[in-house]
Amino acid sequence: MTRLTSKLCVVTGAGRGIGAAIATAFAHEGAHVIVTDKDAASAQSVAARIGAEAMRLDVRAEEDWDALATAHPQIDVLVNNAGVTGFEDGAVPHDPERASLEDWRAVHAVNLDGTFLGCRYAIAAMRAMGAGSIINISSRSGQVGIPMAAAYAASKAAIRNHTKTVALYCAGQGLAIRCNSINPAAVMTPMWEPMLGTGPDRQARADAFVADTPLRRFGRPEEVAALAVLLASDEAAYMTGSELTIDGGILAGSAAAPG
Ligand SMILES: NC(=O)c1ccc[n+]([C@@H]2O[C@H](COP(=O)([O-])OP(=O)(O)OC[C@H]3O[C@@H](n4cnc5c(N)ncnc54)[C@H](O)[C@@H]3O)[C@@H](O)[C@H]2O)c1
């Protein structure tokens, strides 16, 4: 497994879930991986498991990105994976009528500001080599409206657009720095815990979330990681500004599609 041999790859929010799966897959493909997370302990535990380096990095904090730039002024791959729904600390309203400005901004601070800061760092850290791959984890929720998760949906839509801006900017500068997004739908990770809850109706709730998904199941973090490996590798050298959807087929249809 040598698709990423000798590549230096940074993954944010890699202490668990999709980020941990991406870091694991990258290490498996021969990359030198820097596992970062705002939770230092989880980053360290993943790094120890896969033989990688760990670093605490809160994607909202400019000074944390500066510290990363000092430690690693040159990289090959960055995955902007860290993200929040806004429901981590309980069920607060996130619809467009009742969401508070504070909660709206808190979601954007991680998802959008974090991705902006990550892209900015990566362009500088890839410029010397003139090449690299930036992978932004957006979401199916950034492709459709989500009435009960307005900030999440808006921030993920903005990530898709910023991905294209970064791709065009780098190409315009004559750099082979590629920037693409991955748009997953429901992938079973700890992010779902507040929505699934505990108790006897947990399975029924999980089934309901994927009832409209043609493949009728949650995706697995490893399935998203496989796409990240492709985008990080030189096999994807002609891909930039593009989006890879991984959603069990849900966006292939719509309410207007014939049954
Ligand atoms: N799980 C899904 O169904 C799904 C679907 C579409 C998109 N996504 C996206 O995939 C990404 C990963 O999701 P997941 O399901 O693995 O989530 P998760 O909640 O399981 O893990 C998120 C990780 O990000 C870290 N994190 C949170 N805020 C951070 C910050 N400010 N700085 C650094 N790290 C921070 C957390 O500590 C955690 O380790 C997110 O961007 C999410 O929006 C997930």
Automatic annotation (TrEMBL):
SUPFAM superfamilies in UniProt: NAD(P)-binding Rossmann-fold domains
Record-linked InterPro entries: NAD(P)-bd_dom_sf, SDR, SDR_fam
Pfam family, one: adh_short_C2
Gene3D superfamilies: NAD(P)-binding Rossmann-like Domain
Family: Belongs to the short-chain dehydrogenases/reductases (SDR) family.
Protein name, per record: NAD(P)-dependent dehydrogenase (Short-subunit alcohol dehydrogenase family)
UniProt organism field: Rubricella aquisinus
Source organism phylogeny: Bacteria, Pseudomonadati, Pseudomonadota, Alphaproteobacteria, Rhodobacterales
